[in-house]
Amino acid sequence: xxxxxxxxxxxxxxxxxxxxxxxxxxxxxxxxxxxxxxxxxxxxxxxxxxxxxxxxxxxxxxxxxxxxxxxxxxxxxxxxxxxxxxxxxxxxxxxxxxxxxxxxxxxxxxxxxxxxxxxxxxxxxxxxxxxxxxxxxxxxxxxxxxxxxxxxxxxxxxxxxxxxxxxxxxxxxxxxxxxxxxxxxxxxxxxxxxxxxxxxxxxxxxxxxxxxxxxxxxxxxxxxxxxxxxxxxxxxxxxxxxxxxxxxxxxxxxxxxxxxxxxxxxxxxxxxxxxxxxxxxxxxxxxxxxxxxxxxxxxxxxxxxxxxxxxxxxxxxxxxxxxxxxxxxxxxxxxxxxxxxxxxxxxxxxxxxxxxxxxxxxxxxxxxxxxxxxxxxxxxxxxxxxxxxxxxxxxxxxxxxxxxxxxxxxxxxxxxxxxxxxxxxxxxxxxxxxxxxxxxxxxxx
Length: 445
Ligand SMILES: Nc1nc2c(c(=O)[nH]1)N[C@H]1C(S)=C(S)[C@@H](COP(=O)(O)OP(=O)(O)OC[C@H]3O[C@@H](n4cnc5c(N)ncnc54)[C@H](O)[C@@H]3O)O[C@H]1N2
Ligand code: MOO
Known about the structure:
Layout: E1 4-5, H1 7-16, E2 24-27, E3 35-36, E4 40-41, E5 51-52, E6 56-59, H2 61-64, E7 73-81, E8 95-99, E9 111-114, E10 143-146, E11 156-157, E12 168-170, H3 178-186, E13 191-195, E14 199-205, E15 209-210, E16 221-222, H4 225-235, E17 239-246, H5 250-260, E18 266-270, H6 280-285, H7 296-301, E19 308-312, E20 314-315, E21 319-325, E22 330-335, H8 339-357, E23 368-373, E24 378-379, E25 385-393, E26 401-405, H9 414-419, E27 422-426, E28 432-433, E29 438-443
Parallel strand pairs: 1-19, 7-8, 14-17, 14-18, 15-16, 18-22, 20-25, 23-26
Antiparallel strand pairs: 2-13, 3-13, 4-12, 5-11, 6-8, 6-9, 7-10, 19-21, 21-22, 23-29, 24-28, 25-26, 25-27, 27-29
Helix pairs in contact: 1-8, 4-8
Bound molecules: ligand LQZAQKY5 and molybdate ion.
């Protein structure tokens, strides 16, 4: 009998054959979720100029020293400075410029008095706000009474106080989330060089499969796997292409995969990999001449172009296949057909492969230790690493969180999978677990 592989051996074999995708330059929003290839250097200081952090009046500090509501400092308003203003007036002694948040601090001014610390030019008590310029253009002229002093640079955001020119804004390897996209935009980057999202072709196999939304005939079931795998690929950051279920016919499957290779950085199939007489994936992909290219060079490359089918010491997910196919040596992972097996296999093998293609680390999901709860204990097949579905609660006051098994071990239990938020990772040598035992948990967040 051929070798039984451990989960780690199979994963390591896959990862050994996969390299990060070549970098490309993408528009900022298209790069969301992608990994930066190079450090991004700040080209010019941010903010690019000293500016006001308040709507108020730009003043000289000496002019408002000792000011109070009873004895206000009275200053002449020389004009408005709105955000985006250029051609700034100089603020001389006894003068103030009305200034808006984000507007450049004018020459001569040392600080900004918020409008609430003034009469807003009304001659009355403290102002709540400035009237709109369109409704009260006279606010840009006349006099303002200032009720409180300010210190030099108060309410001024200094040039470069956010980031300085020449410093590193983001390090290579950073995954671009909303805040990182925002920073790149703020420093003026319209495009960025990243590892692209991998394109994943997902196809399920089985003559019994019917697309959701269509009625079932005798012996038929709805195709769940191509949906769960497509959703999982998208959640992992890839661009999935779901191909409708292929019937159990080796030639059609080969033809479908061959057609799809053009748009695939990775192919995932489900079903047809065990030991039955209609296990089409195995039949179609075990042939040595699979996916020869059309020219000589491709043909030479394609020698040995075969998917290796393996048995893993794992439950669910025992039958697995992996290979590199076609002229571009595209990785293909063939997952077992039982829906829970397909999903667990995705989490353990496909997701790390996708993260490797994206240049993201760590490639494996984090694990935590948790205490097993539930009325009875668990049994696990010795000699197999078992991944039960679990409901994990993170620690509160206690040092460890808790986890409860959801549903049984059978790999057709997709309803229980949908109630789970974690996998319970039970080692090969463990046959029995009691409530209160510590276990390893893989949160699926
Ligand atoms: N004699 C043996 N039989 C089986 C063994 C074995 O070692 N010896 N292994 C079992 C294990 S474990 C698994 S896992 C399955 C894997 O089988 P396949 O990968 O060949 O999958 P299928 O036979 O095509 O399907 C299995 C099961 O899952 C259902 N299925 C398949 N695709 C979908 C889909 N897209 N959506 C929903 N459900 C799907 C299918 O109808 C079958 O019920 O083999 C065991 N047998
Ligand atoms: O190993 Mo299978 O994946 O139990 O259902």
